[in-house]
Amino acid sequence: MFLHLTNAGIMGLFNFFKKPLRINDEFFGPLRYIEIKGARGYFEGKGLFAPLGYETEYLIEAETSGPAEWQKEFYKNLQLEFDGYIEKIKPLITDELREEDPDIEIGDFKDEFTLVNITIPFSHTPVVRWNMAFTTIHEADHYVTVEFSGDEPVEAVLE
How many C-beta neighbours within 10 Å does residue 150 have? Predict the structure, then answer.
C-alpha cells in the first residue's frame, strides 16, 4: 500500500508538527497562541484574579503580536468592578439554574461559584461581546457561561 502525499499534503503534515507561538507578556505572563483556520486566533494563559484570590484562565482574542493595552485595562477594570458584575449576573444565573431546580437559591456567590475562564474580546468598539464561565456547587457536571454586551450581561447558559 502506497501513501501518496501532494505538496499541499506535505506542507499540512509539517504544519501539524509546528510548535505554537508562545510569548511572555509583561502583564498577562506566559501565553500560547491558538490558531484557528479561517478565523481569528487567540492567546490562552492563566493568572491571578485578585478579587477571588486564585488563578483563572483567560482567552485573549488578539493578533499574533500579543494583547493590546486596552485588553490589559479591560482585565484590570473587570477585577476592580467584579463585585458589581456579580450583582448583575446573579439573577440571570439563578433563572438559568431554576430551569433544572426551581427551588435553587444562590447565597454567597464567591463560595458557590468558581470562575473558570474569561474571554477578552479582540475589539472594544462599538460594543464588546465577551464572557465569563463558572463551575458551581449547584450543578457539579456543568459550566455556567455568562455572555456580555459591553458591561451588561445578556444571557446565562448552563452547559
Answer: 12
Our CA angle for 61, 66, 69, nearest 5°, is 85
Which of 47, 55, 49 has its CA nearest to residue 28? 47
Distance CA 34, CA 57 (A): 14
Grid coordinates representing 130 are 465577551
CA distances from 37 to 15, 62, 149 (A): 12, 15, 26
pTM as predicted? 0.83
If phi over 0 gives left and psi between -120 and 50 gives alpha, with beta otherwise, what is residue 150?
Answer: left
Give the pLDDT confidence of 74-109 residue by residue, as tens digits.
999 999 999 999 999 999 999 999 998 999 999 999
Three cell numbers at 59?
482567552
**pLDDT tens digits for 103-129?**
999 999 999 999 999 999 988 776 789
Q: Tell which residue, 144, 143, 154, 153, has the closest CA to residue 86.
A: 153
**CA nearest to 110, candidates 81, 141, 80, 135:** 135
